[in-house]
Amino acid sequence: MAHAQVTAEPRVAVPPCPRPARAGVGAVALGALAPASALALDPRGWHPFGPVKWLAVVLLGGLGAALVAGPGCHRLPPPLRRASALLVAWLAVAALVGEDPWFAWVGTPERRFGWVTWALCLALLHAGAALIRPRPVVAGVLVAGVGLGGLATVEALGWEPEVFAVADRLSASLGSPAYLGALAVLLLPAAAGAALDRELPVRLRIAGRLATPLLAVALVGSGARAAWLGLAVASATAAGCHRDRLRADPTRTAAGTALALAALALVALLTPVGPRLASLLDDAAPGGRGRLDEWRVAAATASDHLLTGVGPEGYRIAFHEGVDPAYEREHGRDEQPDRAHSAPLDVLLVGGVPALALWAAALLLAGRHVVAAVRTGPSWRAGIALGLVAHAAGQLALFPLAETEPLAWLLAGLVVGHAPSSTDPARPRPVPRWLRALGVAATGVLAAGALAGVVADRQAARAAAALDRGDGHAAAVAAEQALDLRPDWPRLALLGATAAVADDQGIHEALRHVRAGLGWSPGDPILRRAEVALLVDRALATGAPVHRAEARAAAEALLVADPLDSRTRAQLARLEGTER
């Protein structure tokens, strides 16, 4: 029976590839990826949700992919294998010529979606397809669902530790309501599918039954409209794939539809769903009609970089190219956009038209097998497939996340690799040994950098706490220790500058920190504005003509590149006001 794939050897035509003992360790690591992506956090960190999650994703995902896909076989259909590989290869070209020479490869500490993350996603796609037994990954998805849904539910009931208090909507261990919705909608259908699969072990079915209502609370309470869109598309896909069964019993179908609509109406009245949907028409609401402004700016920026885009993590630098006076009046620069809030636009910005075409091709090629799994697969696999449909649809109004995208690519590989039509037992294609060694080595290097980031983030938390209590010296010492570990992080450069001023080290020392950060990312707009602000502060403090000239030159240079930048104009006005 097809359902027995999770408890016994799968009955698909799996190529006769070797299965070394290390592949079992890799499968366990891949099984831990979902719980780590969902639950890892560091309450002692300055940014509790980001650095430690990245460490877990790199370590578990990289090691698991190297141990599973390395000694395994190519079990992806050749068109999908080529499209996904070409996408990552083209993004390497985009990184080479992109706007940011360093973060295009490793990712910023806020977003963590440089070329390395795209390469990790590709490795996980292959690893998911190479898995002989999917049980560890299925179990990991259910553990993540119970844990994440449970945290969101107790948060909804009023228990909210300080580390969770980041918004007026549920965020649980993701640090963002939108991120919570994105991961919940990926996990929810998988949990429901496992709950309905009578061939699964009892403990997995029980986990699915626990996770399903808890994840529903998380999804509704997150207020994530992109995730709700994804769930609606997944529901429509499930109905379309099983339309013959629905037509066979029209009375039952009609009753079920009426019950579902009544439940949706009740949810809209009693939960944040109604107000969040109504706010779509509010110009002032985040993500309302203002989202159209973001898409307009992103499209305008992308139109000037159609061949190679602006490179991974380059949009924050090139963003000003698409800004028009209407956007500047309405939104200003209090926040610096670094993504387009739509996956197609985001991919277009990252790698131009070739990247968008390859990404869409990979999505469609994988989608054939995903939809087939919804139609014919066992319930556990159909649930995972519907989660992928919801994920892809939700990305139309969101963007690729380092918290969810690696897991989604792993699950896509699992679904595609276990489809009978995706294997070719006559021509197994083992992955070269050198590639496994390279993957292990790369994982070690990246994990070391990620671990340094976790420790640096804790030092930054100490610096921020010292600033809050007015201890400038302690703040400066802790900030320097953080910068020793991750000198490339812009937010640490800004923290070091603030601490230097608080410690009475002077503006010169603060400028040193900011300019050191610009050495890693010369075009970073936040650092460049901080440099101008410090130069203006120094000019106002000293009154020296040379300092005034330097401040004016820096501000005017920034305005030449970005003439609508209202914050830089305000700094220039401060300087000119004293000169009059």
Strand-and-helix sequence, N→C?
Answer: HHHHHHHHHHHHHHHHHHHHHHHHHH
Please mark out the parts with pLDDT under 50 across 5 or more consecutive residues, or reply none. 1-16, 422-428
Beta content comes to under 5%
Shape summary: globular
Bin the helical content: 55-70%
The tally of helices reads: 26
**Taking all residues together, what is the mean pLDDT?**
87
Distance between the termini: 85 Å
Q: Oligomeric state of the chains?
A: single chain
- Strand count: 0
Q: What structural category do the secondary elements indicate?
A: mainly alpha
Major sheet attributes? none
Give Rg in angstroms: 25 Å
Give the SSE map.
Layout: H1 22-31, H2 33-39, H3 51-69, H4 78-97, H5 103-106, H6 115-130, H7 135-156, H8 177-196, H9 202-222, H10 225-241, H11 243-248, H12 250-270, H13 273-278, H14 290-302, H15 315-318, H16 325-331, H17 343-376, H18 379-394, H19 405-417, H20 433-468, H21 472-485, H22 490-502, H23 507-520, H24 525-542, H25 545-561, H26 566-579
